[in-house]
Design brief:
The complex is a heterodimer of chains A (465) and B (336). Helices cover 26% and strands 22% of the residues of chain A. Chain A has 465 residues and is of the alpha/beta class. Chain A folds into 3 domains: 99 residues, RNA polymerase II/Efflux pump adaptor protein, barrel-sandwich hybrid domain (OB fold (Dihydrolipoamide Acetyltransferase, E2P)); 184 residues, Rossmann fold (3-Layer(aba) Sandwich), CATH 3.40.50; 127 residues, 3-Layer(aba) Sandwich (Rossmann fold). Chain A has a 7-stranded mixed β-sheet with strand order 11-10-12-13-15-14-20, with helices on both faces. The longest helix of chain A is centred in the first third of the chain and has 15 residues. Chain B has 336 residues and is of the alpha/beta class. Chain B has a single domain, classed as 3-Layer(aba) Sandwich (Rossmann fold), CATH 3.40.50.970. Chain B is 43% helix and 10% strand. In chain B, α6 links the parallel β3 and β4. Bound molecules: thiamine diphosphate and magnesium ion. Thiamine diphosphate (TPP) sits at the interface of chains B and A. The site of magnesium ion has 6 residues of chain B, from β5. Chain B: Pfam families: E1_dh (PF00676). Chain B: It is an enzyme of class 1 (oxidoreductase). Chain B: Heterodimer of an alpha and a beta chain. Chain B: One of its GO terms (molecular function) is pyruvate dehydrogenase (acetyl-transferring) activity.
C-alpha cells in the first residue's frame, strides 16, 4: 500500500508551515530516518524525516509552497513492487484553500491542537481601550508580546551597563522561547549569559550580583523550574532589604513563562501568581498585552526591588499595538480598565484576560455591560481601581487560570469584603483553574482550565439573570 | 573487575568488550529495534497532531537502556527523566499502554493523565517519567534508601542526563548515597547536549564518571553505543551496589539523533556530526552487522523487523482509537 507522508506539526501550536526544500527526489529510495524535506515554521526551519521505507513515489507538494496545512499529504512512499501510477495525486493546495486536513483517524482522534482552548488559540480579536498613559496621537506599531519583551530588555541594556541577562539557553540558542533573540549578537557573551541547568545556583548568584549593585534579569526557562530556586527568590531576594535595615537592596528581575502551556502535563503547567503574590518584599507583574509587557518589563528592570515578571507562553505569539515611544515605561502597581461597563466588574490579568474579554463581548450581546479590569500587577495590587469599578457595578467576578484555594481571586474577594462590602449587590465569584493537577489528555486539560462559558455563567449568577 | 573503592578513581573499562552469544545479540537487536521503531512512530504521530506537548525521542541511545536491562535482576527499580519511552519499553512495559499515554487515552499507563513525561508501572518497578531536570536523582536515591532499609537485595538504577548532572540535588544525593552505602547505580546518559548546550559549554568537569570522586563514589566511562559494553559495565556496577558497597556511577557516552524535543531545530550541531554518529556508531547497526557476520541471514532479520513493525503499528492503532479518559477522571487520584 502506498503510504502518504503528511505535513508534520513540529510544535503544539503549529497549524501550517512552508515546504522550503525537497532533499529527496521522486524515485529515490528512502530508509527510516532519511531526511526527506525541509519545512519552515514561524520559529524555525526543521527537517522531515522518513519513518517508512520504500521509494519516494510522488511529490504532492512542490518545494517553495507556502502555508501548507498540518496533515496535508506532501508525498507518497511506495513499497516493493508498487509504482507511482497507482497514486491518484490529490492536488496540493495551500492552507487557505485546503479542505480540513484529512486525519486518517478522524473518529477517535482529537483534532490537532485541541488542547489549546479556543478562547486563546487565536490572537484576540476583542478591542481594548487605549491606555491613558499613552499620549493621544502617538504612533502605534504592531508587534508580538515576544518582540515587545525582547525590545524592553534591549532598550534597558543599552541604557544601563549594569543590566545583564542570565539563564538557560538565553544566548546561543536565542532563548528556548526566542525571547532573547538577538541579544547575544548585540550585547555579547558577557551580558547575555548561558547558564548550566542549575536554577538554585544561578538564581542565588543573580541575587548576590544584585546585592553587589548589578541589575540582573534572570530568565527561568519556565516558572515551573523556578521552584528549584524559590528559596533564593523568597529568602534571599525578597527579605534582604528588610533584614539589612535598608542597607542592601536587591534590584533584580526574575522572568519567564508562567502558567499552563499546551499538553505538557502536571509538572510543566501551573500558575505561580498566587505563590509570589503572598510574599512581602516582592513585586509581581503579569501583563497581558504587548504594550504592557514592554512598559512594565522596562519598569521592572529599573525598579530597585526584586520583581517577579510572569509571562505566558501562549501569549508570546499574540500581536498587539505598542506605542512607538523612545522610552515607554509604565508604572508597576496600576491596573488598567480594558473595557468599560456598568453591570459587572471582571478582574483578570495575563492570559485570564482572553477569557474575560471574550466573555464581555458575548455578554454585551445579551445586554450585560461588563467592565474589564486588567490588573497587570498582582503585587502591589491596585485595589482602589477595583473598588471604584465595583462602586459603579455592584458586582464582581475574578478570572484566573490558577487554583482556587488561596488564589489571587481569593485575595480580591477578601479585599472587597473588607473595603467594599456596602457597594456589593451580590457575592463576588471566582472563575479559576480546577482544583486538580494539570492533566495531559486533551479533553481533561480543556476541562481543567477556565472557559469563557464559565465566566459568562458566573456573571449571570451575580447579576441574577 | 571489582572497582576499588578507596581510590575512588575512574575505573578503566576492560580492554576488549565481552562477546554476546547469538541469543543475546538477537535479544538486544530486537529490543533496541522496538525502541527505535516505536520512537519513529511516535515522532510521526506527533507530526499528525495525535501526540501533544513535548515529546522527547530516545533514538540513538537504545543500547544504554537495553544493556542495563540485560544486566539487571528482577526487583531492581528504574527511574528517569522525561526522555523515558525507551526506559519503559526496556522494562517490559507494553507498547500499547505507552503509546496510548502519549496520545492521552484511557488505556495509557497513567490513564492519559500523565503524558509523555509522566508514566509509571509499579508492576515493572518503573518509577517514572519526571519533568523537572535532576528531580529523579534524589527520588532514585530514595528508592535505594528503601532497598537498604528493607535489605531486599534490589538496586535502584537512576538515569539522568549530562545537563541534569549539574543540578545541586545530584550532589546532595551522591553524598547521602555514599554516606549510607545505598544500593544505587547512577547512569549518566551523556548524549553531549542538554537541549542546545553542549557538554563543554555547561560543565567544568566534562568527565562525568568523576563526578562522584569527592564523595568516593567509583565511576566508569562506558561506550554507550555498544550494548555489550553497557551490559558488562552494568553488571559490575550492580554487583558492587548489591554487595552493600554503596553507589556506583556509569557515564554512558551516547548520542541523540533527533532534536531535544519535536520542536527543536537543532542548529547547535552540524548535520555531519549527526550523520557520522549514525553511520559509524549506530547501536542497532553494530549488532546487525555482527549478527550477519555470525550467520544470521538478511531474511531472518527482515522477519524480526516485520514483527517489530507489527507491534508498533498495533500500538499506534490502539493509541489512536482508544477513547479519551472519562471526564470524571479529572477529579480522581488527587488524594486518597
Ligand atoms: C529544573 C528544570 N530546568 C529546566 C528544564 C528544561 N529542560 C528540559 S530538558 C533540558 C535539558 C536536559 O538535558 P540533559 O540532562 O542532558 O538530558 P537530555 O535531554 O540530553 O536527555 C532542559 C533544560 C526542566 N525540565 N527542568
Ligand atoms: Mg543530554
Amino acid at each position: 500500500m502506498p503510504i502518504d507522508i503528511l505535513m508534520p506539526a513540529l510544535s503544539p501550536t503549529m497549524e501550517k508551515g512552508n515546504l522550503t526544500k525537497w532533499v529527496k527526489k521522486e524515485g529515490d529510495t528512502v530508509k527510516s530516518g532519511d531526511i526527506l524535506a525541509e519545512i519552515e515554521t514561524d520559529k524555525a526551519t526543521m527537517e522531515v524525516e522518513a519513518v517508512d521505507e520504500g521509494v519516494l513515489g510522488k511529490i504532492l507538494v512542490a518545494e517553495g509552497t507556502q502555508d501548507v496545512a498540518v496533515n496535508t499529504p506532501i508525498a507518497v512512499i511506495l513499497g516493493e513492487g508498487e509504482d507511482a501510477s497507482a497514486v491518484s495525486a490529490p492536488a496540493a493546495k495551500p492552507a487557505e484553500s485546503a479542505a480540513p486536513a484529512p486525519s486518517p483517524t478522524a473518529d477517535a482522534a482529537p483534532a490537532p491542537q485541541a488542547a489549546v482552548p479556543s478562547a486563546v488559540a487565536n490572537p484576540p480579536t476583542v478591542s481594548i481601550q487605549p491606555d491613558p498613559e499613552v499620549p493621544a496621537g502617538t504612533e502605534m506599531v504592531t508587534m508580538t508580546v515576544r518582540e515587545a519583551l525582547r525590545d524592553a530588555m534591549a532598550e534597558e541594556m543599552r541604557r544601563d551597563g549594569d543590566v545583564f541577562v542570565m539563564g538557560e539557553e538565553v544566548a546561543e540558542y536565542q532563548g528556548a522561547y526566542k525571547i532573547t533573540q538577538g541579544l547575544l549578537q548585540e550585547f555579547g557573551a558577557k551580558r547575555v549569559v548561558d547558564t548550566p541547568i542549575t536554577e538554585h545556583g544561578f538564581a542565588g548568584m543573580g541575587v548576590g550580583a544584585a546585592m553587589a549593585g548589578l541589575k540582573p534579569i534572570v530568565e527561568f526557562m519556565t516558572f515551573n523550574f523556578a521552584m528549584q530556586a524559590i528559596d533564593h527568590l523568597i529568602n534571599s531576594a525578597a527579605k534582604t532589604l528588610y533584614m539589612s535595615g535598608g542597607q542592601i537592596q536587591c534590584s533584580i528581575v526574575f522572568r519567564g513563562p508562567n502558567g499552563a502551556a499546551a499538553r505538557v502535563g502536571a509538572q510543566h503547567s501551573q500558575d505561580y501568581a498566587a505563590w509570589y503574590s503572598h510574599i512581602p518584599g516582592l513585586k509581581v507583574v503579569a501583563p497581558y498585552t504587548a504594550a504592557d509587557a514592554k512598559g512594565l518589563l522596562k519598569a521592572a528592570i529599573r525598579d530597585p526591588n526584586p520583581v517577579i515578571f510572569l509571562e505566558n507562553e501562549i501569549l508570546y505569539g499574540h500581536t498587539f499595538e505598542v506605542p512607538k515611544l523612545d522610552d515607554y515605561v509604565l508604572p508597576i502597581g496600576k491596573a488598567r480598565i480594558a473595557r468599560s461597563g456598568k453591570d459587572v466588574t471582571l478582574v483578570s490579568w495575563s492570559i485570564g484576560m482572553t477569557y474575560a474579554l471574550k466573555a464581555a463581548e458575548e455578554l454585551a450581546k445579551q445586554g450585560i455591560e461588563a467592565e474589564v479590569i486588567d490588573l497587570r500587577t498582582i503585587r502591589p495590587m491596585d485595589v482602589p481601581t477595583i473598588i471604584e469599578s465595583v462602586k459603579k457595578t455592584g458586582r464582581c467576578v475574578t478570572v484566573e487560570e490558577g487554583w482556587p484555594q488561596s488564589g489571587v481571586g481569593s485575595e480580591i474577594v477578601a479585599q472587597l469584603m473588607e473595603k467594599a462590602f456596602d457597594y456589593l449587590d451580590a457575592p463576588v465569584l471566582r472563575v479559576t483553574g480546577k482544583d486538580v493537577p494539570m492533566p495531559y489528555a486533551a479533553n481533561l486539560e480543556k476541562l481543567a482550565l477556565p472557559s469563557v462559558a464559565e465566566v459568562i455563567e458566573a456573571v449571570r449568577a451575580v447579576t441574577y439573570r | 573487575m571489582a572497582a576499588r573503592k578507596s581510590t575512588a578513581r575512574t575505573e578503566a573499562a576492560p580492554a576488549g568488550v565481552p562477546t554476546f552469544t547469538k541469543e543475546q545479540e538477537l535479544l538486544a537487536y530486537r529490543e533496541m529495534l522496538l525502541i527505535r521503531r516505536f520512537e519513529e512512530k511516535a515522532g510521526q504521530m506527533y507530526g499528525m497532531g495525535l501526540i501533544g506537548g513535548f515529546c522527547h525521542l530516545y533514538i540513538g541511545q537504545e543500547a544504554v537502556v537495553i544493556g542495563m536491562q540485560m544486566a539487571m535482576k528482577q526487583g531492581d527499580q528504574v527511574i528517569t527523566g522525561y526522555r523515558d519511552h525507551g526506559h519503559m519499553l526496556a522494562t517490559g512495559m507494553e507498547s500499547r499502554g505507552v503509546m496510548a499515554e502519549l496520545t492521552g487515552r484511557r488505556g495509557g499507563y497513567s490513564k492519559g493523565k500523565g503524558g509523555s513525561m509522566h508514566m509509571f508501572s509499579i508492576e515493572k518497578q518503573f518509577f517514572g517519567g519526571h519533568g523537572i531536570v535532576g528531580g529523579q536523582v534524589s527520588l532514585g536515591t530514595g528508592l535505594g534508601f528503601a532497598n537498604h532499609y528493607r535489605d531486599n537485595g534490589a538496586v535502584s538504577v537512576t538515569y539522568f542526563g549530562d545537563g541534569a548532572a549539574n543540578q545541586g540535588q545530584v550532589y546532595e544525593s551522591f553524598n547521602m548515597a555514599e554516606l549510607w552505602k545505598l544500593p544505587v547505580v547512577y547512569v549518566i546518559e551523556n548524549n553531549k547536549y542538554a537541549m542546545g548546550t553542549s557538554v563543554n559549554r555547561a560543565s567544568a568537569q566534562t568527565d562525568f564518571s568523576k563526578r562522584g570522586s569527592s564523595f568516593n563514589i567509583p565511576g566508569e566511562q562506558v561506550d554507550g553505543m555498544d550494548v555489550r559494553a553497557v551490559k558488562a559495565a552494568g553488571e559490575r556496577a550492580l554487583a558492587f551496589a548489591r554487595e552493600g558497597k554503596g553507589p556506583y556511577i556509569l557515564e554512558m557516552l551516547t548520542y541523540r539523533y533527533r532534536g531535544h524535543s519535536m520542536s527543536d531545530p537543532a542548529k547547535y550541531r552540524s548535520k555531519e556530526e549527526v550523520q557520522k554518529m549514525r553511520t559509524e556508531h549506530d547501536p542497532i547497526e553494530q549488532v546487525r552487522a555482527r549478527l550477519l557476520e555470525g550467520g544470521v541471514t538478511e531474511d531472518d532479520l527482515k522477519k524480526i523487523d516485520a514483527e517489530i513493525r507489527e507491534i508498533v503499528n498495533d500500538a499506534a492503532d490502539f493509541a489512536t482509537h482508544d477513547p479519551e479518559p472519562d471526564p470524571s477522571e479529572l477529579y480522581t487520584d488527587i488524594v486518597r
